[in-house]
Amino acid sequence: MGTLLTTGAGAAAAAPRWRTVLGVFKLRIGVLITLTALAGLAITPGPAPAAWQVLLMALAVLTASAAAGAFNQYVEAGSDRLMKRTRERAFASGALRAGPLWVVVIVAMLAVAVGATWMLINGVAALFLFLGAFTYGVVYTVGLKRRTWTNIVFGGLAGSFAVLTGAAAVDPAIGILPTLLALVLFLWTPPHFWSLAIANRDDYAAAGVPMLPVVFGNERAARIVHANAIVLVAVSLLPALAGAGPAYLVAALVGGAHFLRRTHALARDPRRERAMAAFFASMVQLSLLVLGVAVDAALR
Description:
Radius of gyration: 19 Å
Largest sheet: none
Helix content: over 70%
Strand content: under 5%
Order of helices and strands: HHHHHHHHHHHHHHHHH
């Protein structure tokens, strides 16, 4: 990996070498994606896979997500330099050299994750795993991000595919519960990310990225976020009607109410502080949903 490093400027270059490399893989997002995959596994009726298969699935999702995150930073290095929030990322700052060897590493990581899932779990889970990474890395980052404000709507499929990966590890014939949870993840991503985009509108405008608030302005974007959050919270209750347990229902009600309170405040006054509050509230909502699924699974 040493040939992938260079001496760049800024905070990223001054960081320990291992931290600089790990930062490329967006592991915090990867952990969240992995938890949604485990939620998909836990909510799916049927005999649980062996413990080693659950661990393998989790590691495969984390590895595939890391590969997609690294590819995102590799492709976006130029625009990341134009944004205050991202200019210290390793490729953008020059702490890491964005050479072709990185593409080899990224492709190899994804191939190992998908191949191991295919051979040791099943082909359906492997397909969903690949589609999740491909959607984020290629469809969103390369195809849509700089072309349309709807970019993150389709990018949200990456989280949905993670849920379906976990579900397929239990039963390749995906049932209603994991399908509904995947739909929740699909609807969760836009208001989550658009809240962050409102807080960082000037950055996206400077980089020429047509995020929702750049195209429509913060006021209208905030109203769209709140409307989307209402639909999200309504849909998040459907798994409870389809057989998810009481812990999930409580989590959906509490987390949804908290998120709606924050998005309503944002719609009334789209300041940066309220946008970030809505962004963090979306994280709380998703965390509670995952926790609710885990509690119900433990009580079964």
